[in-house]
Write a structure and sequence with these properties.
Elements (H helix, E strand, L loop, with lengths): L9 E6 L3 E12 L2 H9 L6 E5 L8 E12 L13 E7 L2 H16 L7 E12 L5 H11 L5 E5 L11 E4 L4 E6 L2 E5 L1 E6 L4 H13 L1 H18 L3 E5 L5 E4 L3 E5 L2 E5 L6 H8 L7 E2 L1 H12 L8 E5 L5 E5 L3 E4 L5 E10 L5 H18 L5
Antiparallel strand pairs: 1-2, 1-7, 2-4, 3-4, 3-17, 5-6, 6-16, 6-20, 7-8, 8-19, 9-10, 9-18, 10-15, 11-14, 12-15, 13-14, 17-18, 19-20
The structure holds ligand ISJ.
Ligand ISJ binds next to strand 6, strand 11 and strand 20.
Length: 371
């Protein structure tokens, strides 16, 4: 993985603009979140790294690693040479079916008797690479294409036989929660529009997003949910009233930086991730109603729209929302990737399809898939 000092097999990477964490070797593995939280509190000195699924009732993929390295600066993995030559083998559902699902969700959301304000619907693509791809090479490709250097890779094997040898790899722009001492920060994103190659059109897209009442409402549900989840845990909480624009190479997003001071010094970054996940950015409002709708329409999402991150032995850590990612199978050739978007009562189904297509570009361009 371009990190020659590791003495064990890498199990985890999180690259961020200003630092990166790499972990290797498995001292213990956890498929149950509660056991990993207990392990952190036991004070044996090891960190926890890995992935939480979308549905926390399903197995987690958490590891207490043998080696845990937290280093300044984004990760610069060994840059792969040559193209990957992956191709899409299946779409679940087909684009036209996704449009129908969104239209059905819009009708459900428009009827107040259904008691649901927002739901995030996703579609997924299966891909096959002609040559085996290593998780770390894939992560290096993603990080090289992201101006902020965001990338992650997590071994999913702790989640059980269905995930043996699988890795979740992606480049997420969204911080679910971060803890530095008693400071907790979140940077929820919701309300999106695709970037455009023409700078004038691109800027206009951003301005339109900032003014869009529909997108601000979509965003507001996420900010409100995070503020309600964090308020009981914080002695101070700063929640800006207005979202700001954030970009990735493929998307514009509305984002709100939230900052608080934690009251209980023993609460860990993993506890905080469990307290705020799943946010309405990837699930909906109210949460149980939206989650049931998603599970009924899409089935199990696995580790997409979960969280990937780390928590050190002091309780500090960072968890990203696991979006713009793919599950890479044990043979290094089979991949599944997902893209979703928040739906509210005035969403336009064709626009939602376009939004998911643009979100797919993060993973597809790293795999040299044209489109
Ligand atoms: C669900 C995804 O993205 C989430 C949904 C967004 C939206 O609906 O505007 C924006 C950012 C993410 O919170 C995804 O990328 O798959």
């Amino acid at each position: 993985m371009g990190d020659d000092e590791l003495r064990h097999d890498p199990v985890f990477l999180l690259s961020r603009p200003d630092e990166h964490v790499i972990a290797a070797g498995a001292h213990r593995r956890f498929d149950h979140l509660g056991d990993a939280r207990t392990h952190l509190r036991s004070g044996d000195g090891s960190a926890i790294v890995g992935a939480l699924p979308f549905d926390l009732r399903r197995p987690c993929a958490l590891t207490a690693p043998v080696e845990f390295h937290r280093r300044t600066g984004r990760w610069r993995g060994r840059q792969p040479t040559g193209a990957v030559a992956a191709r899409v083998t299946e779409a679940h559902p087909e684009p036209a079916q996704h449009v129908r699902r969104v239209a059905h969700a819009v009708a459900t959301l428009a009827d107040p008797s259904n008691g649901m304000d927002k739901v995030v619907l996703a579609r997924r693509l299966s891909l096959e690479s002609s040559d085996p791809l290593s998780p770390w090479e894939f992560a290096a490709r993603l990080s090289a294409r992201d101006h902020a250097g965001n990338a992650f890779a997590a071994d999913l094997s702790p989640a059980g036989p269905d995930f043996d040898g699988h890795h979740l790899i992606g480049s997420s722009p969204e911080v679910l929660v971060r803890k530095d001492g008693d400071v907790v920060t979140c940077h929820p994103l919701a309300g999106s529009t695709p970037r455009n190659a023409d700078p004038a059109v691109d800027t206009a897209n951003g301005h339109r997003l900032r003014r869009s009442a529909k997108d601000r409402r979509e965003h507001g549900y996420v900010v409100d949910a995070l503020a309600s989840a964090l308020a009981p845990l914080c002695r101070e909480l700063d929640v800006p009233a207005e979202p700001t624009l954030t970009t990735t190479p493929t998307m514009w997003h509305l984002g709100t930086p939230i900052r608080g001071l934690i009251t209980d010094p023993d609460i860990t970054a993993l506890d905080l991730a469990a307290a705020v996940h799943p946010t309405p950015a990837i699930c909906g409002t109210p949460t149980p109603r939206a989650r049931d709708h998603i599970l009924a329409v899409e089935g199990d999402r696995g580790f997409y729209a979960g969280a990937v991150g780390w928590c050190d032995s002091t309780g500090d850590g960072e968890w990203m929302v696991s979006i713009r990612c793919a599950d890479l199978g044990p043979d290094g050739r089979q991949l599944v990737t997902w893209a979703g978007g928040g739906i509210v009562a005035d969403s336009v189904p064709a626009d939602e399809l376009a939004e998911t297509s643009a979100k797919f570009r993060t993973v597809l361009s790293a795999l040299d898939v044209a489109g």
